[in-house]
Design a protein that fits this description.
The structure holds 2 protein chains of 2 kinds. Chain A is globular and about 65 Å long. Chain A is built from 17 helices and 10 strands. The two termini of chain A are 13 Å apart. Chain A has helices spanning 23-30, 33-36, 49-58, 70-76, 102-108, 116-129, 145-156, 172-180, 193-199, 209-212, 225-230, 232-251, 254-263, 293-296, 304-316, 323-329, 333-339, and strands at residues 11-16, 40-45, 63-67, 85-93, 96-101, 136-139, 166-169, 186-190, 203-208, 217-224. In chain A, 43% of the residues lie in helices and 17% in strands. Chain B is mainly α. A two-stranded antiparallel sheet of chain B has the order 1-2. The longest helix of chain B has 49 residues, at 91-139. Classes of the chains: A alpha/beta, B mainly alpha. The A-B interface holds A 46-51, 54-55, 58-60, 78-81, 140-143, 162, 167-171, 173-174, 183 and B 21, 24, 39-46, 48-49, 51-53, 55, 62, 64, 67-68, 70, 73-74, 77-78, 82.
Amino acid sequence: MTTLQDAELGRLTLGFVPLLDAALPIIAREGGFFDAVGLEVMLSRESAWSTLRDKVAAGLLDGAQMLAPLPLAMSLGLGRAPCDTLAPITLSRNGNTIVLSRSLSERAGVALGDEPADSARALGAYLAAHPETRPRLGMVYPFSCQHYQLRRWLALGGLDPDQDVELSVLPPPRMVEAMQAGEIDGCCVGEPWGSLAVARELGTLAATGVQLWPDHPEKVLGVTRSWARRYPATLQRLIAALLDASRWLAADPEHLHQAREWLSLPPYLDRSVDHLSLLSLGTPPIAQRLFGDDVLRPDPTAAGHFAEHIDQHMRRHGRRLDHATLSECYSPVHFDEVAHQPSAAPR
Amino acid sequence: MVEEALTNEGHQVTCRLQSPASLNEMVARHQPDVVIIDMDSPDRDTLDSMAVLNRENPRPVVFFADQHDPDTMQAALKSGVSAYVVDGLVPGRVKAIIEVAIARFDSFQSMRQELDKARNQLAERKRIERAKGLLMKHQSCDEEQAYRMLRKIAMDRGQRIADVAESVIDILERLEIGS
């Protein structure tokens, strides 16, 4: 017996960027978990995080897969006009990789299997000996774990991210081709793009997100606060369907194959998952996590790492991060309403 | 098209980029007042982040259209245009520029939709011709009878003739491969 209220909306559109951690909305759609809670959900592939962000803020999308820091940045008005945004469920933890181009990693002596501090120090030593070299490193968005993890890793090598390298923003699906074209010498990006660069022998894995920030929230579902207030029952059902999708994924190793098949459909990740024989979730060195109720439950304290970076950014502009905004963004209240209910999905 | 409209309105287009590789450099070199970019361009992130990341340019203001005017913003998003003010320009002037750009994008979009529609119609006509040809061969009938058959199935099923044609092609072509 489910006690979910009837949804105010029957049809909705969610935005996503082609990444492995778009998996839960894709599974919920393809596996019928949205249908089971009475929602007809369209998934709209977006070509850039800024476009996805603006469409959510303007109401052209009901919600979207978002970089974990994005709802906070939107609420604080960083990078665009303020728009109160919530992260009612986490969609993934870990999954980022720092990849250096083959040329740069060979010159710097960075090898696969190095500890992050070792690879960073190797790059640091190389750049100290070659001051004319200023590598261009790609990341996906200024307010992203990719940006902050890259800065953290560079700091391990004694490098100043603002002086010693040039940071350049590119959407995830462009990262591999940019490395191939020599436009960037390295990047920090989410899966499958990091492992794809390695599989195509374009670069070497220098560090992973989980090594730098273990089990840190990576993507969340983002909806505006005004949307959540207008459609509370729809939001509950949305969370329930995503949670059911994650429980299904966890239930049987065979489901990982099925999920990979769905992800490789052309509207989603298409051929970018060709190099993955199955989704190897939870295994080192990338250790991406897409299921576990504790993994998906939002938590303001788990947002600590990026909240600190955002606070630093704001202080440079004479502002401060207020903890009320942080707590509201990542409040588990909506999640907890749903997580303890019996599943709506047929087993 | 947008360029023409802007020029007519007395604005000057200083640079047009086909490829994004030199976006940073070109903005630095040409110092434009406004950068106009296709909403769905993957390069929006690069442009969008310049204001946050670029420390050499201490006063870069990024507008998404005029953010205090949700109607203009929605219109811009829907028509597929976004614009960035790279250095402090009077918001009123930005709005005028954006409105010209939106109007031009809109008319471009509707032209594109017309073109798509025409292409679809052509493809549908070809599909119907192909289905008729297959039916004539398999049912040994003439063109008129083949067409009536398609029309009858379409009416019975409540489908469009072009859709019926597609399933007829599907079935009959498979038969041909099988035989």
